[in-house]
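Ligand-bound model needed. magnesium ion.
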Amino acid sequence: MERTLVLVKPDGVQRGLIGEVISRFERRGLRLVAGKFVRVSQSLAEIHYAEHNGKPFYDGLIAYITSAPVMAMVWEGPNAVAAVRQTVGSTKPIESAPGTIRHDFALEVGRNLIHASDKPETGEREVTLWFKVEELVDWNRAVDAWVFEK
Ligand code: IDP
Ligand code: MG
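Prediction:
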């Protein structure tokens, strides 16, 4: 089953939107695998956002993600990466489709509430970066057969 990393970023935590975000993924049918509430270290932030090093917004991005605690989670399901990115919406909230989280709760790209892995390979790498193997919970829900076709 495909897995993806989701972070409710500091603005989402401060604004009391952890429950809203979890609720949307639960309703979508995705299955929670892991979760922890953490203050992001400078080194973790730099590894997580290494692809953006050198870009004009990089320093602000590192300052943003380390400014206050985040809620880190792993969600799984068929095409979990694409499904989560769809529910999250486009990077720029003003380009996000109505009904997506970034559309419904955000205005600015530098305060866009959520991180979600962008490709299945990224999902695997980011889950490994943020969580130890023993923190990932394998489980089944009674409702799984009504959400997952196989
Ligand atoms: P994503 O979060 O939708 O995958 P990325 O392009 O990977 O978007 O960028 C990572 C994060 O960097 C964004 O979510 C946003 O917080 C921040 N970011 C991206 N572009 C800008 C920008 O132009 N100004 C400020 N922050 C930006
Ligand atoms: Mg990205």
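The pocket of magnesium ion (ligand 2) is lined by residues 118 (CB under 6 Å).
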